[in-house]
Amino acid sequence: MTANLIIEAALKLFTQHGYEGASLADIAKEVGIHKSSIYNHFKKKEDLFLAVFDYATSDYREHLKQLLTSIENDSMENSLYKILCNVGQYFNQSADKVVFQKRFLLFPPAFLQEEMREKFATFDESLMQMLFSIFKEKTPPADFHAAEVKSWLNAYSCVLDGLFSHMVYYGNIGFEEKVNSIWKLYWSGIKQATHQHQ
Fold it and tell me: With 90 as the cut, is the pLDDT of residue 191 above it?
């Protein structure tokens, strides 16, 4: 339990003040423990920071798993649209985790840059696999062409990332309009591609 409280406090302070600006003493004070108690759970500040990164990314991965379960009987069109709409809902309940990811993927501590890239690549690959399953399971066999579906997935991933960025910069302002505008273009492209196979 204490480790989780430390991670939550560290998430808040790292996001607000950066890696260098958030001291272990400040994090301990936020939790209401002595600084030395942090070392019972994390050997050094670097380990705590990476634990926070894992916590922030795994939270969305688990959220997406639950969302996919709730829409497993929907069509591909409805499933993909609901995932995009859900970005706003997820951000509103977990903004700190999203902002942390965005901040430190763009500006990671220099000595952790490669490790964080590797961690994010693993996280991103797990998301891509989950999203690919939607295309594979809900595309009629006659329309399923792996290379083409991969391009659909890559484009969808960029849309998803763009919507998260919108929420970071603007919040809910204009979010629904942006989702609907992007979705119309994206889905019309898929319909056109599948129509060419008929």
Answer: no
